[in-house]
Design a protein that fits this description.
By secondary structure, the chain is an alpha+beta fold. It is about 30% helix and about 30% strand. The chain folds into four domains: about 80 residues, 2-Layer Sandwich (Nucleotidyltransferase, domain 5), CATH 3.30.420; about 190 residues, Beta Barrel (OB fold (Dihydrolipoamide Acetyltransferase, E2P)); about 120 residues; about 80 residues, Ribonuclease E, catalytic domain (Hypothetical Protein Ychn, Chain: A). Strands 20-21-22-23-25-24 form a six-stranded mixed beta sheet, covered by helices on one side.
Length: about 525
Amino acid sequence: MKKEILISEDKYEARCAILENGVLSEIYIERQNEEHILANIYKGRVDNVLPGMQIAFVEIGLEKHGFLHASDIEYSFEDIEDSDGSAKVYTDLGDSPTQRRHGKTEPVITDVIETGQEILVQVAKAAIGTKGARITSTISLPGKYIVYLPTSSSVGISRRIESAEERQRLKNLVQSFRPDTAGGFIIRTAAENKSEENLSAEINYLLNTWKSINQKARRVKAPSLVHRDLGFTERIIRDYFNSNINELIIDSKPQYDTAINYFTLLLPEFKSRVKFYNNKSIPMMEKFGIETGLKKALGQKVWLRSGGYIVIEQTEAMVSIDVNTGKFTGENDADSTILKANLEAVEEIVRQMRVRDLGGIVVIDFIDMDRREDRRNVYQALQQEIKKDRAKTNILRISELGLVEMTRQRTRPSIKNILTQICPYCDGHGFVLSVDTVVINILRSIKKAVRKSQRKRFKVIANELVVSRLLDRRSKLIQQLNQEMGLRLQIEGNIDLHLEDYQVLDEHNRQIRLD
């Protein structure tokens, strides 16, 4: 399978697209006007403790307080959950009072934390909707090959490293590097077959980073940011680049230089796979079909190659996915037709979950299958396909009705939540592109209009909300665009225009076709 990573950055947002055989399989977007807080470490102050819910609200210097669950306050490391370095943990507080929840022992929160207390915490899940960030005092510092857990004492290893001999080699290496009081480590999948030099260098780097964090935490007052995670491009390389990636293509010179520096220091053997995209005639994301893929990722209906389709309904509580035969009638008996449609749907369902970053409870309604063997085949296909997904999942067996219930880890807002907002026209029954997204689309369309028409004077007509944003927070970007490209832009609001609609006209008021 050919795998490529695309990283695109402009003045509006940074985007990463992961392609498998030329098809979009994952997308990550980070707006330039929004702060990335996931994995950041803060010195916080406990503002309120709710023993009835086993949570505390901690002021960490953000707009919303972080919420800290009792099970995230203290723990002993016992099990490895996934290859991305995340761990399943259980509390072990000695003589401290505990209570049972979902079969696990956890502390009574009032016995381990109190209002006004200062505490070092890390963001485990970014704020989503009205919820603040979920935080934990279980600090983890991820590297390319190793995750360092300062408050743990064990060495774990990714379950995706299957060779017993290699697992033991890596464990012995890490144990030999580890000082007695160094904390715990998780050996990531990327460490497989890596040398002693690779691992020791990263462990020393992580230990020094933790030392610096502790020193800063003692100096600053709560609430304060103590440690910021890596930048966008470095995080993508650290977390997603491996030997299976054929190319990493970047269209931003600063980010390309950042990537080259990263590879030079840590991954010199893969440096030749980094490419700079400098085609000025067509944007990289447009050339590789990412813009089209994003539009499809916002739709409810996704067509399959056979003529069948799936329907994806995303709500705050859960995601439902329905499989239909559609235009697919098959050639043999009905059971074979249904089985083929369900098997084809499995691949697309997993891809859509990854592209859209769907999380929480997911219910898949496959087409009803009478034969138990067919249900088993579909279930096994789903298990096999889900191995491509980095997010933690838990799949229950397929029911007699053809339903599959599963959970999928959610650590950040989905693509739908990033790119859209509640529709002001239908009072939340549907969705439209957010004002920021439309503004970015307009700015990109202006650049496209310049390329296509070779003109310098344009009029932009858009909804008044969009125009207000253009002339308010985005006014500097308009000025920069004018200066860089020598443009003369006239921006006009029209209250009757749909929020997503806009027009780019030339100096003779003729609309410029941008498709």
